[in-house]
Design goal:
Tumour Suppressor Smad4, single chain, Rossmann fold, alpha+beta, 2 domains, globular, 6 helices
Length: 296
C-alpha cells in the first residue's frame, strides 16, 4: 500500500471544496493518507468529515511516505520541500494559487495525477537546491532552499555593502539593499523581480542579482553550480536579514556565511505534455506572445 501525504498552508474559504475533493479522490485508491497539521486543524475547525487519515507535523513522520501532494501555490510547495528535506519524496504540486511556476498541476487534474501514480506513468523533474553553512544554526537545521538565498538590509536601515567572494577570490562589493543568490528554479522568483535573467531549470548554475544596487553599472551574473560564495557585510546597523526561500532570520553583522549547492535535490512529479514544458510555462505565466503578429 502506498502512503501519500498532503499539505496546504492556505485556509481560505474558497479552497475548502477543492481540498476536500482532492482528498476524496486520493481516498478512492488503496493508499494511506497523511494530512499536515495545518490541514488537520482546518478541517477539524470546519467539522468536515473526511476519509480516514493520520496527521504529521514533523519531517521525521514522513520517513515511509511515497509521495507528497502540495496544494496551493509555489509558496506552499517551497514549504513542502522543508518537510521532505533529503528524503527524495516526489512532490506533486497542485496549483490553486496564481503564477505556479513550480505547482503546475491544475486542481481538476488530480484524477489524472493519481492514475499516473498508480501506473507509474510519470517522470521526475530533479531540481538543484542551495545550502547555507554558518557558525550559528540560524535556520534550525533547515539550511537549504529551492529558490534562493538572500542577504537584505533591515527595513529601516540604510543600504548595506555586501563584499562577495567566489571560490575564495574577491568578486565585487555590492552597495545595495541586498544580494540574491538564486538557483535556476529561483530565477523566476525574487531574482526575476529585481532584473535577473530567466534561466532554464536544468542549467545547473547560480544567478547573482543585487537588490536596488547603488552602482548602476552592476548587473546580474550567472556562475557555475560548483561555485562557493562567502561574504563580508558592512552597514550602519549591527544586524541584517538573511533568507532561504520564504524563511527569514535576523543575524549579527559578523556572522560567517558560506553558500553553495545543496547535496540533495528536490524531486517534482510531472505528468508530461505541454503544461510541463518550461517554454510553455514561461509564455503562459509571464504572458509572453500576446501579440497579434504572433501566429504560432
Amino acid at each position: 500500500m502506498l502512503t501519500i501525504a498532503i499539505h496546504s498552508r492556505t485556509l481560505e474559504e474558497e479552497k475548502f471544496r477543492t481540498l476536500k475533493t482532492i482528498i476524496e479522490e486520493v481516498a478512492q485508491y488503496p493508499v494511506e493518507i497523511l494530512l499536515s497539521k495545518t490541514l488537520h486543524k482546518c478541517f477539524t475547525k470546519k467539522k468536515i468529515e473526511l476519509p480516514p487519515y493520520k496527521v504529521f507535523h514533523k519531517h521525521e513522520e514522513l520517513l515511509k511516505t511515497d509521495y507528497i501532494i502540495s496544494i496551493g501555490g509555489d509558496g506552499t510547495l517551497l514549504e513542502t520541500v522543508t518537510y521532505v528535506r533529503e528524503k527524495s519524496i516526489p512532490i506533486i504540486g497542485v496549483n490553486t494559487g496564481r503564477l505556479g511556476f513550480l505547482a503546475t498541476i491544475a486542481s481538476d487534474r488530480i484524477k489524472t495525477a493519481m492514475e499516473a501514480i498508480m501506473s507509474k506513468s510519470y517522470h521526475i523533474d530533479e531540481r538543484m537546491m542551495i545550502a547555507v553553512e554558518s557558525d550559528d544554526d540560524v535556520f534550525n537545521g533547515m539550511n537549504f532552499g529551492l529558490n534562493e538565498f538572500t542577504i537584505l538590509k533591515r527595513d529601516t536601515s540604510s543600504m548595506i555593502i555586501v563584499h562577495t567572494y567566489l571560490n575564495g577570490d574577491y568578486l565585487n562589493s555590492y552597495w545595495s539593499d541586498g544580494l540574491i543568490i538564486a538557483t535556476p528554479t529561483g530565477s523566476t522568483g525574487y531574482s526575476l523581480s529585481v532584473g535577473g535573467p530567466v534561466v532554464f531549470p536544468h542549467s545547473n548554475n547560480f544567478v547573482i542579482s543585487p537588490v536596488s544596487p547603488h552602482n548602476l553599472n552592476v548587473r546580474p551574473l550567472v556562475v557555475s553550480e560548483d561555485s562557493v560564495f562567502t561574504f563580508k557585510i558592512e552597514g550602519r546597523s549591527e544586524n541584517f536579514l538573511i533568507s532561504l526561500d520564504s524563511r527569514s532570520v535576523k543575524v549579527r553583522a559578523d556572522i560567517k556565511l558560506t553558500v553553495k549547492r545543496c547535496p540533495f535535490n528536490a524531486k517534482l512529479l510531472k505528468l508530461g505534455g505541454n503544461d510541463d514544458k518550461f517554454p510553455n510555462t514561461l509564455r503562459k505565466k509571464l504572458n509572453w506572445g500576446y501579440d497579434l503578429r504572433n501566429r504560432i
